[in-house]
Amino acid sequence: NAGVTQTPKFRVLKTGQSMTLLCAQDMNHEYMYWYRQDPGMGLRLIHYSVGEGTTAKGEVPDGYNVSRLKKQNFLLGLESAAPSQTSVYFCAPYKWQGGTDTQYFGPGTRLTVL
Amino acid sequence: GNSVTQMEGPVTLSEEAFLTINCTYTATGYPSLFWYVQYPGEGLQLLLKATKADDKGSNKGFEATYRKETTSFHLEKGSVQVSDSAVYFCALSDYGDNAGNMLTFGGGTRLMVKP
Question: Which residues of B touch A105 (CB under 8 A)?
Fold first, then answer.
């Protein structure tokens, strides 16, 4: 997980509250992804970005928004949290260069919505 | 769309036993296949991968062969250790639509190895 940090590590919200999860990487990776992990369902892609200033929807985007204003940061926002958003969130930077690729996963943010 | 199915766990083995975790996939095109491992309280780490049919990925005694005819990528290890206890995820990526490495994961299989 070197070079990828996620803030915060843990958070408890009440239904309807908002928050922003921050992913920061110092590896100059072009692509960044947000996944959520739920028991028995593996990881599912929420949103992703193919470069600074770009974002796109993944498999489960509803209830989330993202921004990539700077290449090194990818923010995931919950405008009005719901209990169904209780999950562990992973940021995953990726780089393809010179015929090889590297994929990292951050340490995760555990979010509980009451 | 793409999908990955892997055997449900938990799988409980004694140390030095043989391990197989089954994984099958559905995909358009020619995906790359991966096994990721997640140790308690940590993020995911790439264990091994294969990028084309009949390729064998291997790492730390684990192996998996990309079988296009059976759309499978089963994970095997000849002799497991207590330290292998973790959750294992099978995944695929078709690198499509200029989206980079957009992964589709299976549900995960928890492995517990007893001394």
Answer: 43-45
What is the Cα–Cα distance from B34 to B36, expressed in whole angstroms? Answer: 6
Per cent of chain B over pLDDT 90 is: 81
CA–CA gap between residue B76 and residue B85 (Å, rounded): 14
Mutation to test the B interface, candidates A23, A101, A109, most B Cβ within 10 Å: A101
At B91-103, the pLDDT tens digits run 999 776 677 888 9
* Residue of B100, B88, B104 whose CA lies nearest to B33: B104
What is the per-residue pLDDT across A57-100, written as a single tens digit (0 to 9) for each?
999 999 999 999 999 999 999 999 999 999 999 999 998 877 77
pLDDT (0 to 100) of residue B112: 97
User: CA of A14 to nearest chain B CA: how many angstroms apart?
Assistant: 24
SS3 label, residue A84: helix
Whether pLDDT at B12 is above 70: yes
Tell me if B89 and A45 make a contact (CB, 8 A cut-off): no
Neighbours of B82 (CB within 10 A): 11
Q: Is B43 on the interface with A (CB under 8 A)?
A: yes
Name every residue whose Cβ is closer than 8 Å to that of residue B1 and which is 6 or more positions away in sequence.
none
Pair of tokens at residue B25: 């996939």
* Res A39: pLDDT: 84
Instruction: Tell me which chain B residue has its CA closest to the CA of residue A1.
Output: B43
Q: Please state, in angstroms and rounded to a whole number, the distance separating the CA atoms of residues A77 and A67.
A: 8
